[in-house]
DNA sequence: TATGAAAATAGCTGAAT
DNA sequence: ATTCAGCTATTTTCATA
């Protein structure tokens, strides 16, 4: 857990923020903006990766450019005895399911689905509904994004943050 | 009419896939795995960025490491006359809202919310519910992720894939 | 335990082919 | 698309506080 040895200070926060804004920025460049040498920045990035704070670096892509033009969230209601673990295994077989989680509220699970178009989505949905432990589904097709920002889960700390310790 | 502008061939697909897996990979490294020179890879990446296929490069972070330990999806039901645009403006004032979209189904909008803890989430939810045009909300707290994969919205092409307009 | 400076290696990028 | 050349960045080593 996080009680030990995670001196996540202000400099780390700024480095993470810089890398979230541009993961291909050079260490020297990042260092220049936060007042550190490139060497020091690299060391801290290496440590943040080793600690699991940074889990990777990825290109963000406009899904429609790759032909994924339809997006939906699907609430899944399971048979009462269906373990979430089963869901996890099944979900792995659907390349269209980009995220899946168990949730509170009416449904047992929520699926984030991408498909080429509504026909494709309908086909995927039929396959999901045919899974043995699925009792019913409620779909929410995404019409438009109100927030296209890249600031997802921002690098700022939460308002009532019990996050960052320091020395 | 396939000669112009954005062919997006198999090599581009592989480059995008490589950058989604590791956005800090060197051009030479990517080139080596797909049989191309680093220079050629760079030119293609530049073009993919200019075309808007690639929209950026970002570090992926474990939210809990930054103190965001609670996650939820909130269905928002609006007053009948509330334009989605209003939602967009409001949403911008909540750093806790990491994504917002209009959707079909019962609700008018779906919000992806991150908070430090459930207390923080409750506070955010109360603020959202106090917005003038919000009639009711249904919250789904995320319990666990069934798919922690980094393969979100995969670089593979959809089954019936036709891709790539731009500008 | 941290940093910064220097040196060697590796990568980036433009021009020519 | 490749090769080459000049420049920049990364990464290791070493010295310092």
From TrEMBL, chains A, B:
The keyword Iron does not apply. The keyword DNA-binding applies. PROSITE patterns: HTH_ASNC_1, HTH_ASNC_2. SMART domains: HTH_ASNC. Residues 8-69 form the HTH asnC-type domain. It holds the Pfam family AsnC_trans_reg. GO terms for molecular function: sequence-specific DNA binding. GO terms for biological process: response to amino acid. InterPro entries: AsnC-type_HTH_dom (IPR000485), Dimeric_a/b-barrel (IPR011008), Tscrpt_reg_AsnC-like (IPR019888), Tscrpt_reg_AsnC/Lrp_C (IPR019887), Tscrpt_reg_HTH_AsnC-type_CS (IPR019885), WH-like_DNA-bd_sf (IPR036388), WH_DNA-bd_sf (IPR036390). GO terms for cellular component: cytosol. Keywords: DNA-binding, Transcription, Transcription regulation. Gene3D superfamilies: 3.30.70.920, Winged helix-like DNA-binding domain superfamily/Winged helix DNA-binding domain. This is Lrp/AsnC family transcriptional regulator. It comes from Streptomyces kaniharaensis.
